[in-house]
């Protein structure tokens, strides 16, 4: 069964998130779906949700701290209140828009690794690197593992080519297979694909060798579409 994860980014409210989570949970319970399903809402939408065991709520980001003087950030004190033990680290928007360096990302990774969090660690290349070919792509991606303990037991990887995130352009099956095969040769961890995944192409993507699931943005923000994505992959 593939892993299905939704990153809300800066979308949904506390109210709409609760509706979304409850509808997905009802579906998983009613259909007895055993796929691992993750939702990463905004921090303002955190709550204690009564979900089935394979439906996990995580945080899109947190600072490497329990608490302190870090304006605009959240730490483990806030996450503990909502029993959150899963985190996204290294997303391209944090790297390229918000300026997180590999050093900052590695420090955050080490902090949450030491606390036993489930980490979905994101990697991927921009268009100018992709255009140089697979060798340059892999060199760029492997640099994103500097300072990262790839043997951590609670690690899931997510390959997201930056040029395919939210653009409507998905990597070709060949692109995905080449990169996933190369990463899997070096790192034996669950490896998700992200980049313009939707209900129409998710099944085909999840059947590509060494694709263990998907991390989805835009197409997952409507609960009907997200449930359709889960439905289309439940028997794989």
Structure description:
With 236 residues, this protein is α/β, with parallel strands linked by helices. Helices cover 36% and strands 14% of the residues. It has nine helices and eight strands. It is globular. The termini are close together.
Draw up the topology in text:
Elements: E1 3-7, H1 14-31, E2 37-40, E3 55-57, H2 76-81, E4 86-89, H3 92-96, H4 102-114, E5 118-123, H5 127-130, H6 134-143, E6 155-159, H7 173-186, E7 191-193, H8 202-206, E8 213-216, H9 223-231
Parallel strand pairs: 1-2, 1-8, 2-3, 4-5, 5-6, 6-7
Task: Sum up the structure in keywords.
236 residues, alpha/beta, four-stranded parallel β-sheet, 9 helices, 14% strand, globular
* Shape call: globular
Biggest sheet overview = 4 strands, parallel
Give the strand line-up of the largest sheet: 3-2-1-8
Number of helices: 9
C-alpha Rg, in Å? 17 Å
What's the order of the H and E elements? EHEEHEHHEHHEHEHEH
Structural class: alpha/beta
Strand content: 5-15%
- Uncertain regions spanning at least 5 consecutive residues: none
- Whole-Å distance between the termini? 5 Å
Please state the average pLDDT score: 96
For the secondary structure, the number of strands is 8
Helix content: 25-40%
Quick rundown:
With 236 residues, this protein is of the alpha/beta class. It is built from 9 helices and 8 strands.
């Amino acid at each position: 069964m593939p892993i299905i994860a939704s990153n809300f980014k800066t979308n949904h409210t506390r109210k709409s998130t609760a509706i979304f989570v409850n509808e997905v949970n009802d579906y998983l319970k009613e259909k007895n779906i055993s796929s691992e399903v993750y939702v990463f809402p905004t921090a303002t939408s955190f709550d204690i949700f009564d979900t089935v065991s394979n439906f996990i709520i995580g945080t899109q980001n947190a600072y490497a701290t329990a608490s302190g003087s870090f304006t605009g950030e959240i730490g483990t004190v806030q996450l503990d209140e909502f029993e959150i033990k899963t985190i996204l680290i290294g997303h391209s928007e944090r790297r390229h828009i918000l300026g997180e360096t590999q050093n900052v990302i590695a420090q955050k990774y080490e902090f949450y690794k030491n606390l036993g969090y489930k980490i979905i660690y994101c990697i991927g290349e921009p268009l100018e690197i992709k255009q140089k070919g697979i060798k340059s792509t892999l060199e760029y991606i492997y640099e994103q593992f500097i300072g990262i303990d790839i043997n951590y037991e609670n690690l899931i990887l997510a390959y997201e080519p930056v040029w395919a995130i939210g653009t409507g352009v998905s990597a070709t099956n060949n692109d995905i297979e080449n990169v996933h095969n190369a990463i899997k040769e070096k790192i034996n961890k669950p490896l998700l694909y992200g980049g313009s995944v939707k209900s129409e192409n998710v099944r085909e993507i999840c059947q590509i060798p060494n694709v263990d699931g998907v991390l989805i943005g835009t197409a997952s923000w409507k609960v009907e579409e997200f449930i359709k994505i889960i439905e289309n992959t439940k028997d794989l």
